[in-house]
């Protein structure tokens, strides 16, 4: 039978609280490392150099075509056979970052491709170097498209971290499994863990909503819009339409 006492004990169990914190920082660090790598991969796939396109395309194909669980096991237990031994946390971060970057690169690439080519051409006509065109003109506009799916990816990564428990990372799920072994109240323990995940994803949903509003604020249209947008994309657009 269901035990409310056991359920509330799990909710306040220090092991689950510590596991939730591990899940949060593991997700945050993985996302922070995967995003710059994703930008590089996206730029590589858009490169005019054929070998660069081939390498980055193969990377995305490999990471997206194989399960993350298999990748984690290979990194943690397979690489030591060729002389490369990683710790538990290092292996978990490596697997999460490499896998997530492959998916994020497609989001970044889609965001960049959503910006009309005339914007960057107009900026180059103004004398901007390529790196500045990308930073000042392309990325601010691409972010409007990228933020929602990037936020969804972070939300998904919060739950995907459960897979690292198979290589002994003591995140929320594994901590819950340890706690359950003390009284064998499996249903109450897993329900408490599910509520922790629900709380984390709900809080992130609020943050994501705030980010979407903030990124899109300068691009709102309507009679109430009274401020002039200060962006390099505006003079670039004016140059394009002349």
From TrEMBL:
<dbReference type="InterPro" id="IPR043429">
    <property type="entry name" value="ArtM/GltK/GlnP/TcyL/YhdX-like"/>
</dbReference>
<keyword id="KW-0472">Membrane</keyword>
<dbReference type="Pfam" id="PF00528">
    <property type="entry name" value="BPD_transp_1"/>
</dbReference>
<keyword id="KW-0029">Amino-acid transport</keyword>
<feature type="domain" description="ABC transmembrane type-1">
    <location>
        <begin position="20"/>
        <end position="208"/>
    </location>
</feature>
<dbReference type="InterPro" id="IPR000515">
    <property type="entry name" value="MetI-like"/>
</dbReference>
<dbReference type="InterPro" id="IPR010065">
    <property type="entry name" value="AA_ABC_transptr_permease_3TM"/>
</dbReference>
<feature type="transmembrane region" description="Helical">
    <location>
        <begin position="20"/>
        <end position="43"/>
    </location>
</feature>
<keyword id="KW-0812">Transmembrane</keyword>
<dbReference type="InterPro" id="IPR035906">
    <property type="entry name" value="MetI-like_sf"/>
</dbReference>
<keyword id="KW-1003">Cell membrane</keyword>
<feature type="transmembrane region" description="Helical">
    <location>
        <begin position="82"/>
        <end position="99"/>
    </location>
</feature>
<protein>
    <submittedName>
        <fullName>Polar amino acid transport system permease protein</fullName>
    </submittedName>
</protein>
<comment type="similarity">
    <text>Belongs to the binding-protein-dependent transport system permease family.</text>
</comment>
<keyword id="KW-1133">Transmembrane helix</keyword>
<keyword id="KW-0813">Transport</keyword>
<feature type="transmembrane region" description="Helical">
    <location>
        <begin position="55"/>
        <end position="76"/>
    </location>
</feature>
